[in-house]
Amino acid sequence: MANRLPIIPTIIVGAAIAVMIALGFWQLARMDEKKAMLARFAQAQTLDTPVAFPRKAEDIDNALYRRSSVTCAEVLSQRTTPGHNEAGRSGIAQMARCRLGGGGEAEVAFGWTPTPQVVDWSGGTVQGIVGPAGTEARLVANPAADGLEPLARPDPADIPNNHLAYAGQWFFFAITALVIYILALRRRTQGGGTRARDH
User: What is the DSSP letter of 154?
Assistant: First the structure.
C-alpha cells in the first residue's frame, strides 16, 4: 500500500505543471508577436507621410513612430521629467497636457532643457513624432518649441522583449515542481518501506 501513487496530490501537481508549461509556450508565442510588432514599428520610422494623431486607443498602434501634428488649443497643465535630446545628452523633457483642437486631450513633449526648470508654453500647432505614453499616445515635438532643443525621437528599440526569459522561468518552475514531487514520493516510499520492516 505504501508504494501506491497518491491520486489527488498527483493530479494537483500534474495540473500545476501543465499550466506552467502552457504559460511557457504562451510566452514564446508572445515573443514572436512582439518581434513582429517591433519590426512594424521600425518600418514606421522610415515613413515620411504624416498620419492623423490617434485620439482613440484602437488607432494608436498604426500611428506610433509616424510623423503627425496636433493643435494644442489650451495648455491644461505642465510637468517635467528626465529626458534626452537628439544628441543623447541627459536633461529635462518639457511636457504639457493639452486640450486639442477638435476635442480630446493629449500630452505633448514640446522640448528639452539641460537644467531642471518649468518653461511656460502657450500651446499652438505642433509637429512631431507619435510616441507611446502608457495607454495613450503623446506627440514628441520636432522641431521643438521656440528656444528649446528637440527631444530624442521615440524609438521602438526602447520597448523590451523579455518573453523568452519569462518562458524560461515558467519551464524552470515546471521542472522544479516535478523534481520536488518525485523526491517527495521517493521519501514517502522509503518511509513506508522502513515502517513495514519495523513491523
Answer: P
